[in-house]
Amino acid sequence: MNSQRQSIMLISDDQQLVQLAHASAAACGAPISTSPQLDDLRLVWGQAATVLIGADLAQSAAGLGLPPRPGVFLLGRDGGEDGLCQWSSPLRAAVIALPSGSRWLSRVLAAAGPGQAGSGRVVAVLGGVGGVGASTLAAGLALAGASARRPAALVDLDVHGGGIDLLMGLEAVAGWRWDSLSSASGQVSVLNDRLPATDGVVVVSTSRTDRVEPPAAAVTAVVDSLRRSCGLVVVDLGRSAGLAGRAAVDLCERLLLLTGASVRAVAGAQAVLAGSEDRPFEVVVRAHRESALSPAAVADALGHPLFGAIPWAPALASAADRGLPPGSAGSGRWARACRRLAAQLADAPAEASGRRGR
Fold first, then answer.
1. 142: closest CA among 172, 173, 121?
2. Which residue ranges form the domains of the chain, and what is each CATH number?
3. What pTM does this model have?
4. CA 330 to CA 254: how far, in whole Å?
């Protein structure tokens, strides 16, 4: 096999699975290369933008001991997801079942295909248990993902929260909220100049007076516009994803479930996942040195790969009360963890990603 850089590589000898994957690739116009040889996985592991591994080779691939990397997905057939989950953690791979997940796979492949360099990554954050800090993590990732070259965007779909503009210290800053964008549809022009912003992050927040879920068509139009103008778009789903959340999820390349490291937190996250339509979530664990469970144990219990961990940072609450965005003061370890996670989302080394100083 030619070892030149491949954008998307599928390793599988299951011809039916290969056909289903190529159908998803054709639907979005993304070229995909295929090999039935496990040895080729070593060649493309550090080269391909996206690596797809068939269920037939998942166990053998997990046994290769390859270093962790983003952009890996395990492909299986409908009904076989449980068998794949045991290999998702060692490979740090999300599981996609086909053909039910064909639309999701097309989204993943479209983001990795040629001509996508101008499109930002879109990631959603879902809270696995109340009070775990999903909105704070979403804000921290957006702040960490902003750069001098391209801004980041933070999209609030948690209608039961306090408004993410308040968390970002932007409640008094003029700009459009969802009440001004609810009629958006189709292709929307660049919105950045009309939105409140801080530290390189533009924010679409719920309205203080009209706390209703925005129409799904508006969410699709707004998120799609932001991905064209921003390097990273982070969607805060809160603890549930209604029609608006599902519209945003359909545009996401990565889905993160934030939960704690306790038995109660795992139980809550399991209940949330039960209603997530088998979406390929990756787990982020808010850990404390006295936590009952390790991050790896939490991910194993949930049957989803571990994306990373963030420390418990009590200073974040007092910073928010003073109108300071997350990570601005008294939370150095937490901010560094967000930078590491944002670097993984950008497929870049951790040192290359970071929030600009205030």
1. 121
2. 8-112 (3.40.50.360), 121-352 (3.40.50.300)
3. 0.70
4. 29
